[in-house]
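Intended use. Records like the one below are meant for learning the mapping from a protein sequence to its folded structure. Do not use them to infer anything beyond what is encoded.
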Amino acid sequence: MKLKWNLIIFFVLILALSGAADNSWDKIKQSGVLRVGVDDTYPPSVFRDEKNNIVGFDVDIAREVGKRLGLKVEFVPVDWNGVILALNANKYDMICSALSVSEERAKAILFSPAYLNVGQVIVTSNKTKNIKSQKDLEGRTIGTQLGSTSEEAANALPFKKSIRTYQKFTEVFMDLGIGRLDAGIVDEFVARFYVAKDPSRFIFVESLLTEPIAIGYRKNDLALAEVINKTLDEMKKDGTMGKISQNWLGADIIVK
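Structure written out for the chain above:
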């Protein structure tokens, strides 16, 4: 009997310690600040306006979450190639910046339910001829962002090609526009923004695959994830997230 009670006390202590260890939400609630990791060169998700203010689709999502939870939202720009490492090094509390869900990333972080499905796409410019599909990229020079799922998609193409990696998608479009690249493989988010902005210069070729977009948390921050995920679900159900999508993407494409 004594052994039985000792085991019960042991397991109660383990549960108590586990709950105490995950004070992720309590810490943020007490501080009043939610720090959000972003790539601020990634329109229309997150970018700088003419006054250097951070704006965009995911900016509005994060700010609405903060508003509903009574928190000030602080955006922390980060080199996208190290976005996961910086999260796990406590540089910020979550990632809300068109973060694609992948099996590799899921080994290192926790994801919210997806709120968008967007793809990796091929874009070219009016300076490049005869690229109608991915087959036409064989032997060509392709630009993409270092550390992104776009880079993974480019590397996965089953033929020889030259791949140039850049720190920012904006740099891909810069070199594409002046003819240094034959094509770019980029997130659909960014591609549609640039094509709509200058349709005579940039051309949407085709989608390679579709990926869910979600918020990323540290693996152990279950309490924070629960609170944020509940808030996101409320924003979906009351139509707020759909309005944000309509404003930035021209349509309500939120995953319900």
